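cache lookup: miss for this entity combination. No prior model stored, computing from scratch. Input as submitted by user K.M.:
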Amino acid sequence: MAAASRSYHYRELKSPFRRKIMPLTSYWTFAFLIFITSQCLADDDHEMEEFLKREYSLSKPYQGVGSLGSSHWELQGDAMVTTDQVRLTPDMQSRQGAVWSRLPCHLTDWEMQVHFKIHGQGKKNLNGDGLAIWYTKERAQKGPVFGNVDNFTGLGVFVDTYPNEEKHLERIFPFVLAMVGNGTISYDHERDGRPTELGGCNAMVRNLKHDTFLFIRYVRRRLTVMIDIDGQHEWRDCLDIPGVRLPKGYYFGASAITGDLSDNHDIISLKLYQLTVLRSQQEEEEEEEITIPSVDNFELLRLGQTEEGMSGIAIFFTVLFSMLGCIFLIVIGLVVYSHWNESRRKRFY
Ligand SMILES: [Ca+2]
């Protein structure tokens, strides 16, 4: 039932939450479906409406993208616009490119639909490195994490096409993975981001004839990622994590990088929908301002914050007390030595 409610045709429906007008004869079927759906999707039982937000969306014909000031989107690095796509990197070695929204997003609940394409000459596992979709404080900076900066603040959803860590044979690549950073956590490239991953799924997305999509939904602090890569127009669950706290006012972006191995990393469209969710008065009151990204019950993030908080003040006091201790010991030593020397002299005379 859940799978059925998530299947759709792109031409008429772009989201599982798009409302349809039903003929009167279908009323009872509709009512029955609503009842069943509400029973199946315990978390989706709140009424939702969605609106495409053009200012945060990127689609053909990419008018003005990349030129100064005339678009909501900015190109960075080797990224290029063509009539059919925004090419983040070409299928060439050592390239890095990105496209970034110029506007900070202040929506509480949203949904991003990513239409992308990864293709190249490289045979299986001789291609790299993948692309990333971002909702971060930082924007338009070059770096090692799929072309973006490390120690980022916010959300990253990665389509990792190259297995750097050879040991984990049980994981099939390409692999889709989500990570939340608070500005102090590093992405472990050599381990394909495993130490900091929130969850993920494998996704055979390279060199496909049909369209491939990624769906990122952030509603009521729940992060859901789904993929549609089989050409069936059906969303497949990838990860679903409650208690994800993301501040407002961050930037959407997409980036990609190639190294010794390469691929064409293309964005065909980024469509951002605002979701209006009905909240109870109690929920509204409990809603506090989030300033640092975090994930409930996820230790790594908290550890990162503690380490950061300690580093400045703790190091200062450790050094200060160590120095005071050394001076104290030297003074005691000198006093003992002079006493011993004096008593020795007295005995000598
Ligand atoms: Ca990798």
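stored under new cache key. The first helix runs from residue 2 to 6.
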